[in-house]
Each structure stands twice: as structure tokens, then as C-alpha cells.
Amino acid sequence: MAEGPTETPAFNFRKAFLWTEIFRCFQVALDPRKLLVAAAGILVMSFGWHVLSIIFYTDQPQRNDDGKYGNAVMQRQLGKKSDGSEQTEEDLTAEGNKQYNRDLAEWKVRHDLAGKDKDGNSTGQLRTMPWYEYRGPNPYLLVTKLIGGSSTEISEGFSEFLIGTLPVLVEPLRKQLLPIVKLMDPDASLVTRLYLILALLWSLATWAFFGGIITRISAVQFAGKERISLMQAVKFVSRRYLSYVLSPLVPLIVITIIVVLLALYGVVGMIPGVGDILLYGIGMPLVLIGGIAIAILLVGLIGYPMMYTTISAEGSDTFDALSRSYNYVFQAPWAYLWNCFVAIVYGAIVTFFVVFIGSLMVYAGKWAICQAPFNESANRKPDYLFIYAPESFGWKELLLKGSPIEQEATETKDESSKRPRVIYKDKNPAEAKVYRDKLWVVEKIGAGMVTFWLVLVFLLVIGFSYSYFWTASTMIYLLMRKKVDETELDEVYVEDEQPTSPFTPPVAPPPVSPSPTHSLPMVPPSLPVSPPPPPAVSPPPPIAPPPPVVPPPPVLPPPASSTDEMTMPDNDEPKPL
User: Fold this and answer.
1) CA atoms in the 13 A half-sphere facing the CB of 489
2) What is the dihedral of CA 41, 44, 48, 53, to 10 degrees?
3) 310-365, pLDDT tens digit by residue?
4) Secondary structure class of 425 (helix, strand, coil)
5) Which of 12, 86, 303, 571 has its CB surrounded by the most CB atoms within 10 Å?
6) Residue 567 gets which letter from DSSP?
7) 3-class state of residue 492 by DSSP
């Protein structure tokens, strides 16, 4: 029989280009549960950093502080010269300037992280609360500029988009690595390094929990398994919380040990002759080996998000998280970089879209209530409700546009650290001051209550970037696992969690009132009797075959005689007469 034409299987674009699975992250990251978890993580991390910044921050050192940099203090510290002569005034002044410049450089590092301006407003990178951080221009104002602006304004709008949105997308990783980078700053003092270590530990402890929850829910969703609840994810992370914390902490501990050993090596190397020839001249390869180990561990930390996703997807421990993350980064670096590039570019677009929708939602609501009739004649235009609005993403600038307290973004430099930053100021300071002075107490209270809801919405909007970060990290881990270990994307560890109902004790029967005539005896309930086991059936005995039946030998009749022929018949009947 002739066979029919064979059909060529259809080309599956998604299977041929697995990195397109990253495009699923937008829908998965929009899960309201993940947004709430991400918003809670942002709030907890920022609050802890703010408290640490207040504790460790100190005022700027002053050169005219004679109690610290005066010549008398320098004389006590330096003593006499090696030849026994006294220190000159020039020598003491030079030493005071040297110590002051050193302390000022150390203070600038701490001020850049935990500082505040002369008005008391937080300016440090770790001290500023998230709704006051500058994250680029407002997306709604940017879109209106792109639609109705000139070619120059359009090009400026695109550059503002790249400058403002991309850093927001990688903000979780950037803030995690910021304390590590500042720890290696040569101007950081011992107190500043202690402050950075505590900030790093707080960040790791925070996102080990909240990031673990997001990656666990995302891993189960990507695998197409049965939907898990938020409480199930919380229990999953709580049981493995120590593994989540230690995964990125172990490489940092190893780096610290190597640094301490090399520092001790340097102490011994201070001995003349021994250090110059023996330790550094001959033993320099040991220093280089230590430096290589530190570099490898630091470079491998770019795969730090995959540590959490490993535990969430495999249900494993710290060792498995470390081995997989470092192995995937170094064994397939180009695949990892390509997946990250696609996730960042796609994430920048969807993050801009989410922030745009959030800004449009807030602005549309404010615009609608401003259309109430007679609000201007009654001097009740609701601009005052947004005087405390979040500054980040230009929300305050957007909501107060066209009002007496209109804001404008101004680029300036910090007076102490000289770091450029953007702040929002009144466009018409005199008019704004008069407007604020006329506000009633109840109007300020109402503005504060409105700000609470605006901050809540803002945290959900900014929480999307964190939710997307951890969701995309989960998908990148699954793609790298497929690339290196050839494991399918839908293979995710799922716990057998059966819903257990709480034990309810048996309900006691209602008490029976005694009979007036007689009472029946109480018979205890008989215990259930198990039926007796069936009797053992023995097989029947074998039946012997019957003995063969032998027929008897035949009997031959005797020979007949003549007399016998004349005898009477056998019936002996008489003959008739």
C-alpha cells in the first residue's frame, strides 16, 4: 500500500528561540501579590537604611576645630623630631591640614551615602526614602513632549527616557551592589565600612525573604504547575530562609577572609628585608592568587539573583544555589549576558508603560476633581491636596502643574560631596509662600491623608520594577538551566502540601435528666470486635484410583445325557389327567 505524503512539522518559534520566553515576564510580574510583596520589601529596606544612616551620620569636620586639628593637639601627637628638636609651627600646621583633609575625604564618602542638606532634607543614597529619589522625568510629561514637541525636544525626550528608566529597572541589583562598591573605596573609614556592612546585611536579610517569595511564585507559574497561594510561598521561604540569606553571603564571607589574610600578609611585609625580598619579591604570586580569587568571586556575584531562584525552583540549599549560579555564569557567559540584555531592554519598555499608566491614573483623577464648578471662585481648587505628593518620577511636578505652587526640576550639586542631583523647587517662590501661608489646618490634614494613598500607589508602581526584576531573574535561571543542564523549563520542585483541617473534639451529648420513676443502667459501648480470621482450608487428600475390575471366568455347562432328556420341566407343573 502506497504511503501518503509526510507532513513537515510546523516551525515553533518559541522553542527555536527560547530567550523569547522572557516576554512572559511582564504578565507574570503584574501579579498583585508580587506587587504588594515588592512594595513591602522596598519599604522595609528603605526604613532600615534610613535608621542606620541617622545613627552613623556625623557633621562635617571643620578646620578651625582646635580641639582636633590645633597645633597643640598636633604637638602632643607628634612629639619631638627624630633628632630631638621641637616641631616647628609650619610642621604642626601641615600635619593638622593633612589630618583634616583625610577626615574630610572620609566624611564625604559617608555623606554621599547617609547625608542631609542644611535644611535637614535627606540627600544620601541610602538615607533618602524611595518617594523622594529622583528617577527621571515624569513619563506622562515625557510622552506629551514627544507628541507635541520639536525634533530637538523629541531627541531630548529619548535621552531622558534612557537616563531615567534604565537605572530604575536595575535598581534592585544596583542597590544591592552599592554597599559592596563603597566598601572598596580607599577613602572609606572604619566606621563607614561598618555602616556599609550593616546596610548590606539588612538588604540581604530583606530581599532573601521578599525576593524569595516573588521567585517562588514566579517559578511555579512559569512551570505551569498548580497555582500556589501567597501563604504557601511564605511558608516555603520561611523553611529555607537561612539558605536564602547565606547564598549571597558566603562569597562575601570568603572575600572578607581573603582580604584579612592578605592584610596580615602586608603587616608582616612591613619588616624591612623580609617584606621586600621574601614576601613581595618571591611571594608575590600568593598576593596575585588572592586577588584572582577575589575578582572571580566578585564577578560571579552578577549572577546573585539566580541564587534565590535556584532555591525557589529546586527546593535545594545554599551549596546548590552557589554552585549553579557561578557555574551558569562562567560556563555560558554569553548566553547569560544575552538573556540579561533582552530582559533589560524589554523591561525598560514595560516599566515605562506601567509608570506612565500610574502617572496618567493619578493625573486624570486630579484633573477630574478640578472640573468641579465654582471651585476657583470659592477658592477651593484642590491643588493644596498634593503639596506633599511624592517627588519621584516627577509626580509632584505633574500634579501641581499650573497651580500657584508649581514645581520645576533643578539640577544642582551637593555642597559637600559635589555629587550632581536633581531637586524640585517652587517655580514662583513668593507666590508659593503666600499660598502655603493661607492654608487651613484641616486642608493640611487632608493633604497628608491624600499623600498616604499617593505613596501607597507609588510603592505599587515602583514595586513593579522590583517584581519584574525577580520574575525575569527566575526566567533567566530556567533558561540557563536548560542551556547548561538540559533541564526542561517546567521541571520545578513542588511540595505535596495537603490542606489539613484543625482537629475538632467530639461533641458531648446533652445531659439527660433523671427519670422520676426509674433509671436504666449505663451500658458502656462495646469495643468494635474484629471478625475472626477465615479458617485455613487444607487441600483435599489425593483420591486413589479404583482397583481394576477382573471379570469372573465363565462356567461351562455339563454335558447332556439321555435320561436328562426325559425329565420333567423345571416348573414341576402336574400333567393333566
Assistant:
1) 20
2) 80
3) 999 999 899 999 999 999 999 999 999 999 999 988 988 898 899 889 999 999 99
4) strand
5) 303
6) S
7) coil
Closest CA to 211 of 427, 410, 37, 459: 37
Give the three-class secondary structure for 422: strand
Phi/psi at 163 (5° precision): -70, -35
Question: Which three cell numbers, joined as nine digits, stand for 480?
Answer: 540557563
- Determine which helix (DSSP H) or strand (DSSP E) holds 304, and give its type and residue range: helix 304-314
The Cα 183–Cα 190 span in angstroms is 10
Q: What is the pTM of this model?
A: 0.77
Question: Helix (H, G, I), strand (E, B), or coil: what is residue 421?
Answer: strand
Contacts of residue 568, defined as CB under 8 A and 6 or more positions apart, other chains included, come to none
- Burial tier of 357 (Cβ tally within 10 Å: 0-12, 13-18, 19+): middle
Which residue from 201, 176, 212 is spatially nearest to 302, judged by alpha carbons? 176
Residues 6+ away with beta carbon under 8 Å from 375: 381, 382
**C-alpha cell recorded at residue 213:** 517569595
Average pLDDT, the chain: 81
DSSP string, 357-395: HHHHHHHHHHHHHTTSTTTTTTT--GGGGGTT---GGGH
CA distance 465 to 545: 94
Beta bridge partners of 420: 413
Place of cell 475472626: 532
The residue behind cell 498616604 is 452
**Cα–Cα dist 344/469, whole Å:** 9
**DSSP state for residue 410 in the 8-state scheme:** E
Helix (H, G, I), strand (E, B) or coil at 224: coil
For residue 139, give the C-alpha cell: 513619563
Mean pLDDT of 54-80: 86
